[in-house]
Design brief:
By secondary structure, this protein is of the alpha+beta class. The chain has one domain (about 5-115). It contains 2 helices and 7 strands; from the N terminus they run βαββββββα. Strands 1, 2, 3, 4, 5, 6 and 7 form a 7-stranded mixed β-sheet that branches. A hairpin with a 6-residue loop joins strand 5 and strand 6 (about 80-85). The longest helix is centred in the last third of the chain and has 16 residues, at about 100-115.
């Protein structure tokens, strides 16, 4: 179940989030991991994080996430989104169109992550 901070997702964003959490898996170290989506929308920065785990929530004192990916966007920055993956440990810029609202950014980030997880 996704968690939202500063965002009430519209129906398109909600459907994209539900589809991502229910259908998108990745393989890491010979294990299949599911993603859980976190959206943190502030006035000066928007972020979408995906925590990949086996089919369980880590909890406060539980095991840490096996892999985390974060997409962050500063609305004034224009066309650059930063992608941070814990396995790589560094941010990489991704070109994008300027987003008109946070819901469009959430949908774009999840579509981009799904494309990277399952290249055509």
């Amino acid at each position: 179940m996704a968690k939202f901070f500063g965002l009430k997702p519209n129906s398109k964003a909600r459907r994209t989030i539900d589809d991502f959490e229910n259908q998108t898996t990745i393989r890491l170290d010979n294990r299949r991991l599911l993603g859980k989506v976190y959206a943190d929308i502030g006035e000066d920065q928007w972020a979408v994080s995906i925590a990949y785990n086996l089919a369980m929530d880590p909890g406060l004192y539980g095991k840490e996430n096996d892999l985390e990916v974060k997409y962050s966007y500063v609305p004034e920055s224009g066309e650059i989104v930063q992608r941070l993956e814990t396995g790589l440990g560094q941010e990489s810029p991704i070109s994008a169109v300027p987003f008109t609202n946070p819901n469009d950014f959430v949908v774009w980030a999840l579509q981009k992550e799904k494309a990277l997880a399952h290249p055509a």
